[in-house]
Model the fold of this input.
Amino acid sequence: MTALLGGNRITLLRSGEQYFPALAQAIDTARAEVYLETYIYVEDASARRITDALCRAARRGVSVHVLVDGFGGKDMPRALREELLAAGVLLLVFRPDISLRWRKHRLRRMHRKLVTVDGRVGFLGGINLIDDMHTPGHVPPRYDYAVRFEGPLLAPAQEAVERLWTLVAWASLKRRWQAERPVPVDASPKGCQRAALVLRDNLRHRADIEDAYLSAIGNSKHEVIIANAYFFPGTHFRHALVNAARRGVRVVLLLQGRVEYVLLHYASRALYGTLLEAGVEIFEYRKSFMHAKVAVIDRRWATVGSSNIDPFSLMLAREANLVVDDPGFADELRASLHEAMEEGAQHLPKTRWLQQPWWRRVPIWIGYGFVRLMMGIVGYGGKH
Done:
């Protein structure tokens, strides 16, 4: 895994209510450049706040780069694209071909939510440019996390956004838009937290995020808490959780309780029996839709990012997580997760789950079969 860098100041941001004001403020203070990567970019109140900030920055001469995924951003209104371009924002689309024909490369999406401003402040997490209340039927807001960071982490973050922007600019035949750095990166110490930017791509970092999880779980001694919206781990990941529980580690999973994607919803439940029998505790978050991708281990190791624990995030998509080695940050995130479990989640008792009638099991195994079939069609199987 990438080495931990000391001297950072990292702030936990809970859902869009804290994320969007902090991001807009940072963009409004930009003097030279902004890089923003997002999977989804829609037209609603929260996204409008960021759009206005980006346009203001571009009009005052800031070099603003926005990268949107071709599939996740397929519903981005044309009028919104034109508004950004008219203001002087440079807008690129990652893999705009969204044909439904079964080809592996079309499933390799840009799922990162990574922002840098003037090489001095960065943002990373699971939050797209979409309002917390955007999903139909939402009463409470969507449950998610991001972080704001300053310090030595800015060096790898800036390198990552520039490298991907340049790659997409060349692929889009916009060589004149390739990355340039008007100001040097400020990687000087800003705090006392140790952390690493962990990326997943299909070249040099194919398994970095999964390996970071596996290492932390394998070395855990007391407690593992994972909150993940789309949970369908491979064999190695499941074995790591089971082995930790069997050696006396408290393993807690906070998973999506509401039905968002039907196949994955039922397929993931096919794994519950094995986990519960090993002593893993499972909570389903039902207060609202959950989009979090975070974990806390032994009240010291923590991660916040864009990567789900499923084949598409761990094997196909470009993802970005921050791994933090800091008791204070870990305790803050842990307290937030416990609050979510107490106020918005339902605990699944092992006995009740294992004794449920056959007719409740049928959709679970059908969903599991379809997801496994899809993985086989695109050529991904084996240990996953």
In short: The chain is about 35% helix and 25% strand. The chain has two domains: 7-191, 194-377. The first strand starts at residue 5 and ends at 14.
